[in-house]
């Protein structure tokens, strides 16, 4: 049975800050941001957008009424959830009007969460071929103002419909995985900002990729010539390039050139959104699918997922015939075109806005947010979400 990605969409907030201007405001050479880490713009979430609303907006884009009746499992991968008990998936299930006879859960392992969700979804579809699973990857990367990690912040969500006989990408089964208990990046339960050992994390990312890539080659007998492209989890776009270059010494010139060229295409969206943790790998895949016009059916795409702490996995998919007809490229182009640049001062003001933690009531002006699904306020320690289409 073929199982894989039938639909894929993404959402990012309508506000962004220019990385050159952020660098200048921090008295840093802009090239360190635009070339050194490979970022051009950074999405900035207003107070009316959180991981729930971004995921719901991404899913709203791809689901039709038949999908809502067929989905009976919603799996939400995130490391910036809004509640320690109630899953973000339950909120999204209600906001989208998915039929009630469904499971809805949240999974966590740093940036690996959505990959774990996909693997879980594959097993579920194998047992229930008529079902569909909605996999959500949504995060807001926060390190703090004037910190070393500030330039690798971002916000966004990717939604994927996993099914039998998928129309975009059939996922293969020769995965290679690796787990090691390390402290390269973490966010204690009491903190809304992450902690990271940047140099160590970069080293581990590359080490994990080389190990799972080598294990995959030994397991399958496949090599660079069998791949049209390899997509990476991208905390910043230069990270994946470093990992890819670490293994290309043994590649034929033609293969190395193809993989590097396609890698650059796969970073287009990430470069202009920033780090979205669990969704970063899948935003890279989406960028490749929508920005490389000569991709052919039958091409094998490699995917490297990494979640600090740490879990890594290399897996693959084969493009289906006519996959281009099932993408939402026009909608994504319009979304990018409609975004509004804000100043560094405006970004800092938005960054410092916080929800009340004492149960007090607050209401937000959601008319200022063009998204369909927004956070309208908080009352009695409960977030109040609004789907403008159903009001």
Automatic annotation (TrEMBL):
GO molecular function, one term: hydroxymethylglutaryl-CoA synthase activity
Family matches, as Gene3D superfamilies: 3.40.47.10
Catalytic residues (UniProt): 79 (proton donor/acceptor), 111 (acyl-thioester intermediate), 233 (proton donor/acceptor)
Xref: Pfam families: HMG_CoA_synt_C, HMG_CoA_synt_N
Signal peptide: none
Protein origin, superkingdom: Bacteria
Keyword Zinc applies: no
Keyword Transferase found: yes
Family: Belongs to the thiolase-like superfamily. HMG-CoA synthase family.
Name recorded for this polypeptide: Hydroxymethylglutaryl-CoA synthase
């Amino acid at each position: 049975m073929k199982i894989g990605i039938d639909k894929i969409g993404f959402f990012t907030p309508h506000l962004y800050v220019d990385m050159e201007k952020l660098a200048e405001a921090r008295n840093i050479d802009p090239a360190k941001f635009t070339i050194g880490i490979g970022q051009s713009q950074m999405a900035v979430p207003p107070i009316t957008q959180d991981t729930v609303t971004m995921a719901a907006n991404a899913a709203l884009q791809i689901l039709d009424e038949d999908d809502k009746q067929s989905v009976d499992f919603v799996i939400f991968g995130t490391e910036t959830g809004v509640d320690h008990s109630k899953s973000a998936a339950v909120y999204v299930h209600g906001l989208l009007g998915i039929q009630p006879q469904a499971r809805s859960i949240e999974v966590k392992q740093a940036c690996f969460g959505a990959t774990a969700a996909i693997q879980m979804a594959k097993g579920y579809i194998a047992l229930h071929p008529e079902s569909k699973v909605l996999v959500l990857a949504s995060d807001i990367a926060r390190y703090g103002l004037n910190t070393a990690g500030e330039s690798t912040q971002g916000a966004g969500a990717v939604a994927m419909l996993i099914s039998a006989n998928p129309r975009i990408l059939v996922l293969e089964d020769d995965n290679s995985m690796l787990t090691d208990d390390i402290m390269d990046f973490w966010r204690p339960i009491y903190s809304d900002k992450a902690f990271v050992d940047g140099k160590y994390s970069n080293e581990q990312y590359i080490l994990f990729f080389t190990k799972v890539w080598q294990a995959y080659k030994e397991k399958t007998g496949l090599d660079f010539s069998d791949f049209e492209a390899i997509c990476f989890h991208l905390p910043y776009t230069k990270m994946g390039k470093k990992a890819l270059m670490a293994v290309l010494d043994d590649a034929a010139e033609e293969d190395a050139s193809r993989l590097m060229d396609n890698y650059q295409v796969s970073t287009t969206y990430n470069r202009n959104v920033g780090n979205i943790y669990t969704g970063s790998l899948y935003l890279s895949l989406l960028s490749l699918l929508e920005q490389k016009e000569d991709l052919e059916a039958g091409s094998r795409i490699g995917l490297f997922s990494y979640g600090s702490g740490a879990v890594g996995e290399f897996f693959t998919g084969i493009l289906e015939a006519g996959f281009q007809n099932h993408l939402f490229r026009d909608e994504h182009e319009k979304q990018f075109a409609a975004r509004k640049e804000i100043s560094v001062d405006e970004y800092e003001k938005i960054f410092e806005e916080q929800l009340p933690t004492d149960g007090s009531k607050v209401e937000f002006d959601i008319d200022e947010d063009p998204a369909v699904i927004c956070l309208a306020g908080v009352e009695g320690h409960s977030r109040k979400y609004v789907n403008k289409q159903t009001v």
